[in-house]
Amino acid sequence: xxxxxxxxxxxxxxxxxxxxxxxxxxxxxxxxxxxxxxxxxxxxxxxxxxxxxxxxxxxxxxxxxxxxxxxxxxxxxxxxxxxxxxxxxxxxxxxxxxxxxxxxxxxxxxxxxxxxxxxxxxxxxxxxxxxxxxxxxxxxxxxxxxxxxxxxxxxxxxxxxxxxxxxxxxxxxxx
Length: 175
Prior knowledge:
By secondary structure, this protein is mostly helical. The radius of gyration is 18 Å and the shape is elongated. 88% of the residues lie in helices and 0% in strands. The protein has helices at 2-11, 13-46, 48-63, 66-77, 81-100, 105-108, 110-139, 144-153, 157-174. Helix 7 runs parallel beside helix 8 (144-153) and helix 8 (144-153) packs antiparallel against helix 9. It has a single domain (14-174), classed as MetI-like (MetI-like fold, Orthogonal Bundle), CATH 1.10.3720.
């Protein structure tokens, strides 16, 4: 039953648009997080004062639960793509920044920076998709999360499991 539901979901062009919308938001949030977190890490590697400031800011960001950032993003942007992207960005920048732990650029070298940055990015990519779906469930922005929320509302276990199967296939493809 769930397999046929997943096949129906994956065979519908309308549902592919839903998958693409969710993944587009996740990738935009991921890209912004990687750029901002990586750039901040590089700058902090040059300047001890910037490192202290960044650590203080990261402590504040990490100390606030993700659901609180979601509420602020909903207030600031409404139920739009921007809300999903900003919520992902705030949740992921500390991960990308903290995972690289850069020393000064000239003493570490470019290859060593990439050796720290790429694993952080690879860990962050699946998290962005999960965050996008979670945010869509809570905010009713169209996407996979919204479809899961509808399945929950109608107590449709087959639809929920079918959408989850699609997510598993997507997750397998990107990792």
